[in-house]
Amino acid sequence: MNTNLPPRISVIVPFHKAQGTLAPCLQSLERQSDPAYEVIIVDDHSPDDSGEIAKAACEKEDFHLIELPVNKGQAVARNEGVKAASGEILAFVDADVVVPDGWLTTYRRLLDESGADVICGGYLVSKGSAPAALFASHEAFFRRLNLPSPQLRTLTTANCVMYREVFEEAGGFPEYYVDASRNPETQKAACMNEDSELGFIIAGYGRKILWTNDNHVKHLFKDTWRGYLAQQRAASRAGALSVFRFPGMLFTRDLYSGEPIVPQLAVTLLMLLSPLALLPWGLQGLWVMILLLGGGLLFLALYHLRFFFYLGSRGMESYGRHRIFGWMLVARIVWVYGVAQGTLDGIRMRLGHCLRGRSLNRGEGS
């Protein structure tokens, strides 16, 4: 055993229905020049051919496959990957990204130079060329340009590295269920925002989370507007549910939008309240609707004005700014819908906790 090697890095790659993206991801990990790393691939009970791609990759040294018996979601899959990992440093990446050749080497250097406990990076470009994919790519990059670093209280597992002791101190990715009355052995855990939740927990321990613009990955964004909107809804739904688990996250800036959550919810509230003016309140109600809905739209217009100028030099000039703004408004409406769904999920989860608590109390007293 070579004792001169640096601390080992374990790369965790969970996947589910990733047959179109997993192979390029794993190939990019094979090309890493780092002297001490392993790759733990976690099959989250994928029904497509992703598993065969993973098995083929695991013929190589230091590539290992874990197969979960049921689809448990990203949080559980990543936690299981960490259990099987041997590294002192953990790296996380999604199955739909391609990392640069020096990805691990750069992260190792940044950890040594910065003194950070966790380092996250973003997306450089989209692997897709469809307008929706380009739009999502530019939007994500633009919103993360001015993140407060190193005072982050969140993280993203699409492109991230951290010390194992930090991960274990925080208890790993939170695993919980909206409806815990069902069998947790077969139920998929609440997921998609588990990385932000873990970042919030880690920051609560006083750990340093650093954002870097020096180690981006390529990401395969959704190439249809329908897929983009579905992602918007899922992200906002998961974010709203997280607030029920960790109310302090209301005052953090999430990595997806780059915005503080409270202003986002203020706009959401304006747009949710505006339909109330359709009740039979006459002309006065019409003015209420105009003020509430118009206020929310005006806020969006002012916020996104800078984004228009940014896109002007990013290859989307021919698509038309009127179309871009239209999709922004549609995306925000879908975002509001996701928040409403997540709020209902949170109420259902909290109500379930209360009912189970009462049941347990009655049982204990009998």
Q: How much helical structure, as a percent, in the residues?
A: 40-55%
- Gross geometry: globular
What is the string of helix and strand elements?
Answer: EHEHEHEEHEHEHHEHHHH
CATH class of the largest domain: Alpha Beta
**Uncertain segments:** 357-366
Distance between the termini: 61 Å
The CATH topology annotation of the largest domain reads as Spore Coat Polysaccharide Biosynthesis Protein SpsA, Chain A
Biggest β-sheet description:
8 strands, mixed
Report on the structure:
With 366 residues, the chain is of the alpha/beta class. It folds into 2 domains: 9-223, Alpha-Beta Complex (Spore Coat Polysaccharide Biosynthesis Protein SpsA, Chain A), CATH 3.90.550; 261-365, no CATH class. The chain is built from 11 helices and 8 strands. It has helices spanning 22-30, 50-57, 74-84, 103-114, 131-143, 164-170, 194-204, 225-245, 261-273, 282-311, 321-365; strands spanning 9-15, 37-43, 63-67, 89-93, 97-98, 118-126, 159-163, 209-219. It has an 8-stranded mixed β-sheet, with helices on both faces. β2 (37-43), α2 (50-57) and β3 form a beta-alpha-beta unit. α8 (225-245) packs parallel to α11 (321-365), α9 (261-273) runs antiparallel to α10 and α10 (282-311) crosses α11 (321-365). The N and C termini lie far apart (61 Å). 38% of the residues are buried.
